Amino acid sequence: MHPQRERLHNELHARPSIYFDEPATLHHYALLDEAGACEAVLARLGELSGTPPDREAVQQILEVEGLTLKWERHTEFLTLTLLVPRAPEEEAWPAPPALLDTLVGPNHAQLISATQVLVESAHRWAGRPSDYGFRDPSGSRVGDGDAIVWSDFRLTDSGVNRLLLVNQGLDAFRLGRMTRRLLEIETYRMMASLALPLAKELERELQAHEQELGELSERNAEREAESSRPLLGAISELSARLERSGARSRRRFSATEAYSRIVFTRIEELRESRIGESPRLGTFILRRFRPTVHFCDSIHRRQQDLAESVARLNDLLRTRAQVEIEEQNAEMLASLNERTSSQLKIQKAVEGLSIIVISYYLFSLFKLGLQSLDALGVSIVPAVAAAVLAPLGLGIIGVLAWRIQRVKRH
What we know:
By secondary structure, this protein is of the alpha+beta class. The protein folds into three domains: 12-180, no CATH class; 195-331; 345-409. It has helices at residues 5-9, 37-49, 98-104, 172-192, 195-221, 228-270, 281-375, 382-409, and strands at 24-32, 59-64, 67-73, 77-85, 111-121, 138-142, 147-151, 161-167, 273-274. The chain has a nine-stranded mixed sheet with strand order 2-3-4-1-5-8-7-6-9, with helices on both faces. The chain is rod-shaped, with a radius of gyration of 46 Å.
């Protein structure tokens, strides 16, 4: 059996929902995993519950101070969901228990999402969303009409978004899953929107980069006597800046794409239908959330296209520089050929002069020899001397010429 089989199979049960009956209140907080916030929250939770958290686990449901609390560890954030049973006579929007302030208070700067879901029975709720403090609310029948959800998506003074769920036919299992979908929509919507400030900042940078790229393209298109080196340096610098900004934003934009897909999927799973003239919950969210996702995606694609354009311009300029280098090399080779041809001509002239000089000295030596023999009383007929010495001299000169040619070949 594969050593990872059990662990991979149990991923089917990795993130269960909290199952409960109404009336109840759910407090849901999401904290970014920055400055050790998640580890600090889990350590504090272990102290309060008396059960140290499992470092290998991704979620856990605990009983803390008589309340059900669930924590979930995600890639870059941690969520806390606290279930508080509610008596019918209690106020509509109770304050969060002190337990949450103990856990979240020291890490309030990392709080990215805070949502409160009030779950009421169909026969007990006030009957109008305005009775719960909503102004111009959006509402939908969800779960094929077994529940109604209302919200105006306005934050309270403490930064909490409120949702009202009126249960008309959901059992504890379906009610837990429905509230989980609503909480995931809010959490992942906020996590996906984290890329919006970065996208707006990059938009201004990309405008400057695009203008700079246009100027460099014009300089490259002009046939001036300008050296390619300054232009190559400017393009390399622009490419480095684009690569740096891409490395800074690539992970954030990829996360936005993944989170937005979860939001779209969870909205589809609500199976909404309209209530009167009120806008549907999912329609209200998508109408305002989808442009954010599209804007971030367009900035990401614009950034990639700009980087590709700079790379193409860099390739064109390098090709141009390579052609210039090849032309210079061809001119240098032609100059070397001319020099080599001149050297060969000079060498041939020197060789000819050398043979003439050697021949002159050789015949001079023969002449001196004949004169010496005549002084000793040996009479030599000139015709005989010429017949003997001429072939010998020519042979010696031929041997010298052959040796010169052999040295040249080596």
